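[Automated response] Your request has been received and processed.

Submitted sequence:
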Amino acid sequence: MDTLAGFVAWLLMIFLQTCPAHRLRAGEAFTFELMPQNRRLVIRVDSNDVKHHVLTFTCGMIPEAGKELERTHIATMVWGKNKTVTSFKTETREELLSKPLVLPDTTQKLLLGTDASYAFLPVKRQSKATPTKAVEGYKGKIGFAAASYTLEKDDIDTSTDPELGLLNVTFTNAGETCGIQLVKVLLKGKDR
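Generated structure:
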């Protein structure tokens, strides 16, 4: 998996942990700007079976040419008391889970991948997450909440909104920093 495909997978995994699953609707899309690479990533809600509490997502990179998303990853999540990922497939449709993965409470830890033991733990330092004042396509007030996580020498800073989910994430790896910022949403449903 190349670095850009890694960002797609990481974004999808963090979004699964921070999204308001009960509010998501089929057809909604969340567009993120990947900096400094100047590429756009999209998380699309493919379906939400409210009766059975099952969501499916596709996450990929908007191509520089063409229409099909690049480096796509697909996930299926069951929500309710706990959020549980039942399938997480790579761009080549390789399944990364051998059994369902119960997602942790983000106040306790944050996962970047499908290995529950490889978790970033929260730290008390000031988060570097940038407050987001507005997002194209969202008319509601943004309730910004920042958090910081660390694992060995790597840091993650996130900001979330209870209605939207993930707004931005900053990765610091070996001194290099990269950010993913929510820039546009396409929402469905009367209660939005």
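Summary generated for your ticket: DSSP finds one helix and twelve strands in the chain. The longest helix spans residues 3-18.
If you did not submit this request, please reply to this message.
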